[in-house]
Amino acid sequence: MNPKLAEQIKEKYQALNQDPQIHFEGLLHSKPINYWDYIQVDALLNLQVQRTVFPDEKVFILYHQISELLFNMILSEIDQVAKTRNITTKLFTDKIMRISRYFDVLTSSFSIMKDGMDVEQYNKFRNTLTPASGFQSAQYRKIEFASTELINLIDNRFRETINRNSSYEHAFEHLYWQAAGKDYSTGKKSYTLSAFEDKYKDEFIRFTKFYQNNNLWSKFKGLPKSDQNNQELINAMRHYDYTVNIKWVIAHYNTANHYLNISGKTAEATGGSEWVKYMHPKYQKRIFFPDLWTNEEIQTWGTNV
Ligand code: HEM
What we know:
Elements: H1 3-15, H2 20-29, H3 35-38, H4 41-44, H5 56-83, H6 89-108, H7 111-114, H8 119-125, H9 138-147, H10 168-173, H11 191-211, H12 216-221, H13 225-228, H14 231-260, E1 261-262, E2 265-266, H15 275-278, H16 281-284, H17 295-299
Antiparallel strand pairs: 1-2
Helix pairs in contact: 5-6, 5-9, 6-14, 9-11
The protein binds protoporphyrin IX containing FE (HEM).
């Protein structure tokens, strides 16, 4: 054994006020680790708890879980960008490409949802999920908060009335996704939306406070001007924006259409939104990095897909 390594291990435990001898002995008796323990395979395969007898419900649960795992990988990369001071364009570009790759996987694999379940089975088992909806994915919202400034997530119709001086509460009430569950004329919210807010609103406020100035868009704008002109970085940012806000959104919309639009008759979604209008990218016009797109690209956002 490399004596330097043994010395370093000794120093590590001494610094913790621990007897290195005991830790070496512990190492001597410890069991070798196996793949199934390390990856927690048994725990993982115990998480698909169906509510019905339909086999395709398992596809639905598993693919949502896969999505949440990838969301987690994305958040972990964004967190590293947010916490790196004086980030280089090289590192920034590499991280955006990693994040994009995860979202590319989500987009290209969405056919598992659209073509991978029997329509009849889906329309039976989904009744047992109501009023739950993917709309209540907190990680998806966090990816948005961590990617751009709050103003870019405000419902298009109210964007002009909100600025940096608006209270967080006011901004929150006008986030684009409120439209999925709120009647703006009465202020009344659906159960799906209020339950989601009860569980996550405080956490979102804490999260957003940090990301207000550390989101990907603010980080980009904080780079030296010459770095902001780096074409590779700009391309990576545009790719990410397009993948999340057009490609994934349209794959999701087409899936909803496949299951919930039967011979031109649209069924009510489990979360109760007016989904035909709500989910289309051309209405939501969600854009993380608006200055990286031309006026024409913004005007035609989501219309050519
Ligand atoms: C058969 C598959 C799916 C259908 C039919 C579907 C349908 C819908 C509908 C209709 C909505 C609007 C809210 C509502 O009224 O419920 C929605 C929202 C949402 N779903 Fe799905 N979904 C599917 C799969 C997924 C998957 C796999 C994910 C991944 C986590 C997901 C994540 C989301 C998210 C994040 C929202 C909110 C989007 C937004 O606010 O723009 N969905 N979904």
